[in-house]
User: Fold Zinc metalloproteinase from Ancylostoma ceylanicum.
Amino acid sequence: MDKNEASSARSVTGCLRYKTTYILKENTFQKLNSTALLAIREKIHGLKEKVKAKLTLSPERKAILDELLKQISSIKKDHILSKGDSIEEINGNNKIGELLYQGDIVLTNEQADEIVQDAEDNGSNRTKRQAFRDQNYPRTLWSNGVNYFFDPSASPAVRSVFTKGARLWMKDTCIDFRENSQAPDRIRVFKEDGCWSFVGRLGKQQDLSLGDGCESVGTAAHEIGHAIGFFHTQSRHDRDNFITFNVQNVKPDWVDQFTKQTTATNENYGLPYDYGNIMHYGANSASYNGRPTMIPNDPKYVETLGSPIISFYELLMINQHYGCMMYQASAQYQTLTDEVGNRNAGQRPREDMDMCHYWITAPAGARIEVKLVGFPKGLAVDGCQYAGVEIKTHADQRLTGYRFCAPEDAGVTLVSKHNIVPIITYNRFYATKTVIQYRIVSGGQPMPQPKPNPNCVDNQQCAALVKTKNFCNSKAFTDSVKQGLCPRSCGFC
Assistant:
């Protein structure tokens, strides 16, 4: 199956896509100091007071922050690499970050104008658009695959981590990456000061830098995430339901960088906020005193922020964004018939796998039953090395799913732990036809309630929280936070 057929237009969390011409000088450092880029930086910097006002906490939110901080251990942060241990640190040490949006994004004029307008009118005068797309969408997607080439400045380490990072995105999505320096639209991967990228496909040639300190697969995958259309997770329009900013710890010149998108410009496809996203910055990002600037509402996630691993929900979101094959389960069995491979290649193994990716979805709280109806004979070997189907029904969907490659597997039935089931078919020998049926089954048992709190006294801010924030019923806060602030009002004692 041709992946290009599966990547018709759609949308992603924190995505920005524009077809535009951004003229920069030949030398990269000069690019980052060009008049155009400095003007863009000034536009964003002009939002400082507005952003600071929005980040200033109400008494109720301050009470939440204080409670969250009580539940966070005081951890002395180590420093492993002299160049920096995060993108924000690396670019800060290079002095490049202060010229970039949120530390590692090169904005176009149009993108900067959108961000300023969002901050000015909070999206109230804008029509609903998916992600950050304009009238040029879907031309701003890499619908025919991502073309890239390595500049002579790219070291073997840069080439290695970029290639591996691209494979991580390609492994479980319908996006192809191919090295092609002659393609009309392409990414030049080179080694300059810092780690940075443009967001989405701009048209013609655009740059992605992996400088000194950026030579890790996680960093490369993060910058590739920008190039295929992601903004940072902490820019989601709903971020205040999941993280609390402590603006007192933020570097003064970084305050304006913590703008967020609006519902008019940000489409998250109904997917939850994932603290483990590779596109999320760390808890101490842009801190001037080493103390956290971002506190997750589930404080046990504080060390998870800034992950070097692409999350399951990021893969799901990029698949939806690019229109990869999504199937909605119902109460009745539905049938998925897949054929993958190359019949014209004959009866001999090929070097590479042909792969197709499917995502079976159901409403939140439901589970999905998947039944393998049929698989051809003649390819049943250990490890399913020549062809097979992988079905991911585990609670941890980062794990490899169950793989099948024999006709005797027909009738195997699996039930998912969640309302999403990724299915991958693959082949490198002739071609295979896989038939699967799927349907919705009922959800699981209710979650156990926490033990009663013997000190049943509400915090003084509890009444306001319950009245204005629907605090006790909110899914944004863990039961431990609710119990710490409102044990009596929320029914814990």
In short: The domain at 3-316 is CATH 3.40.390.10 (Collagenase (Catalytic Domain)). Confidence is low (pLDDT under 50) at residues 1-26, 125-132, 444-450.
